[in-house]
Amino acid sequence: MNLKRWFFLFWTCMAVGAVVSVISGLIMQWTDPSFGFMGLEAAGFNAFMMAMVGLLIGAFSQMGFFAYLTLNYIALSIFRKSYLWNALQGYTTVFAVFGLGYMLYEQRTNSWFFWVLPLVLLICSLAVAYVKAKQTKPSAFVPTAFLMFFVTFVEAWPALQGETNISAIVFMIIPLFVCNAYQILMLHRLLQKNTTTDSATSAKPVA
After folding, report:
1. Rounded Cα gap, residues 88 and 170, in angstroms
2. Any stretches that span the bilayer, and where are they (predicted)?
3. DSSP line for the chain
4. The pTM is what?
5. End-to-end CA distance of the chain, in Å?
6. pLDDT tens digits along 1-58
């Protein structure tokens, strides 16, 4: 991927984060008037602040995404066989569903939410992985599921600490998940365009 396409992915991911943060934030504020600054009467100001937070979430999501790509590259060079790395990612994802759910369950009073959260995130992650596998190849299913569930949970971990605030947790996880889904579903398109451009350039006759 060249610098131009990386920059395109960077700012569009931040834009996606801003838009999704505003939408999810306003829904949270509508269902929970205490969510946000100064209540419902300052919805316009709150939307601006949510957009700013969404830009940061988009940038944070991209940091996690490229960290995963780096980890994936290193792991493949270590394991040599891609199926071994995929098996480890699949095992880690399954373990994280129960492990993180149990850890959050023990620390919170309204513990039902922290069992529902990993399950809903897992279902959505499998849906994104299915789309990715259909658009590329079946072997992309497990890595995508790992990215969408485990990496998203790691990125959202700061929001899961401290006092229980369901609205704040949802406000953090939804934009992160959407940004990660956007990046993983755009990656092969950008790489394919880059390959097509390089092929067309190499095929151009020399004057």
Report:
1. 28
2. 7-27, 47-71, 83-105, 111-131, 140-160, 166-185
3. --HHHHHHHHHHHHHHHHHHHHHHHHHHHHH-TTSSSS-GGGHHHHHHHHHHHHHHHHHHHHHHHHHHHHHHHHHHHHH-SHHHHHHHHHHHHHHHHHHHHHHHHHH-SSTTHHHHHHHHHHHHHHHHHHHHHHHS-GGGHHHHHHIIIIIHHHHTHHHHSSS--HHHHHHHHHHHHHHHHHHHHHHHHHHHHHHHHHHHHHHSPP-
4. 0.83
5. 28
6. 677 888 888 899 999 999 999 888 888 777 766 665 545 445 555 778 888 989 999 9
Phi then psi for 19, rounded to 5 degrees?
-65, -45
Token pair belonging to 181: 């889904």
Structure tokens at 35: 């969510």
